[in-house]
Amino acid sequence: MHNGGVAYANTETNIVIDRSGMTNNSATNGGVSYIESNGNIVINRSEITSNKATENGGVSYIESNGNIVINQSEITSNKATENGGVSYIMSSGDIVIDQSDMTSNGANLGGVVYAENSGNIAIIGSHMVQNSAQSGGVVYSGNCGNITITNSSMVNNTAKRGGVAYIHEIGNIVIDRSNMTSNTANSRGGVAYIQQNGSIVIDQSNMTSNTAEQNGGVAYANTETNIVIDRSGMTNNSATNGGVSYIESNGNIVINRSEITSNKATENGGVSYIESNGNIVINQSEITSNKATENGGVSYIMSSGDIVIDQSDMTSNGANRGGVSYIDTNGDIVIDRSYMIGNNATNRGGVSYIDTNGDIVIDRSYMIGNNATNRGGVACSNSDGDIVINRSNMTNNTAGNVRAKCVFPC
C-alpha cells in the first residue's frame, strides 16, 4: 500500500469530502486522503467509518503546510497503527473539528488527531466518545502547538498518558465550557497531560469521574507548567496522588471560584499535589468531602512551596495528616478569610499540617468542629515552625492528645 486510500495530492491541491460516505478504505498513510504539502483537507457533513492506515492518519494525512477541517460529520472506528487515528499533520498545519462526533477511533499517539510540530488543534461543539491511544486518547501535540476544547463533551476516552489530551512540550491545553466524564489514564493525567513548558487551563467546565492509575486524576504536568481551574466543577475524580491535579516540579496550581467535591487520592493530595517548587492557591471556592488515604485531604506539597487558601469554604475533607492541607518541608500554609468546618485527620492536623520548616498562619477565619485523632485539631507544626492565629474564631475543635489540642505545635 502507498498513500491516500481514496485521494492523493502532491502539492498546491485541496481535497474536499462533502455529504459523502467513506468506509473500509486503507493506505500506508492517509486511509482516505493524503496531501504532501500546501493543501487543505475538508470533510463536511459526511460519515467516515472503519478506515485504516498501517502507519499514520487513519482518515487524513498532511505532510506539511496544510490544514484539516472536519465539520458536522460522524467519524467512527477509524484506526492508525502508528499515530492519528483520524487525522495526522507532520508540521505547520492546524486541525479543526467542529460540531462532529468521534467514536471508537484509535492509534498509538492521538486516538483522533495528531499534530507533530507547530500546529494547533481546536475542537468545538463536538462529542468524543471511547477513543483510545497510548498518549492522548483524543488529541496529541508533539511540540509548539496548543489544544483548545470548547463547548464539547469527552466521555470514556482512554490512554496511558492523557486520557483526552497530551502535549509533549511547549504548548497550552485549554478546556472551556466543556464536560469531561469517565476518561481514564492508565498512568498519568486522566484528562490532560503536559510533559513540559505550558499550561493547563480549565474554565467554566465540569470534570466528573475521571481517573489516573498513578497521578493527576484530571490534569498532570511534569515540569515548567501551571494548572489553572477557574469557575469549574470537579467531582469524583481520583488518582494515586493528586485526585484532580498533579505537578512534578516548577509549576503552580490555582483553583479559583470553583466547586471541588468528593475527589480522592489513594496516597497524597485528594485534590492537588506538587512534588517540589510550586505553590497551590485556592480562592473563593467551595471544597467539600475530598479525601486522601495518607496526607493532605485537599492539598499536598512535598517540598519548597506554599499553600494559600483565601475566601474559601473547606468542609468535611479528610486525611491521615492534614485534613485540608499538608506540606512536608520548606513551605508555609496561609488561611485567610475562610471557613474550615468538620475537617478531619486520623492522625495530626485536622485542617493543616507541616512536618518541617514552615509556618501556619490563620487570619480572619473560622475553624469549627475540626478534629484530629492524635494532635492538632486545627493545626499541627511538627518542628521548626510557628502557628499564628490572628482575628479568627475557633469553636468545637478537638484532638485526642490535649498537648496539641486545636492549635499548639506537636
Automatic annotation (TrEMBL):
InterPro entries for the chain: Pectin_lyase_fold/virulence
SUPFAM superfamilies: Pectin lyase-like
Xref: PANTHER family: G PROTEIN-COUPLED RECEPTOR-RELATED, OUTER MEMBRANE PROTEIN PMPC-RELATED
The protein, known as: Right handed beta helix domain-containing protein
UniProt organism field: Cymbomonas tetramitiformis
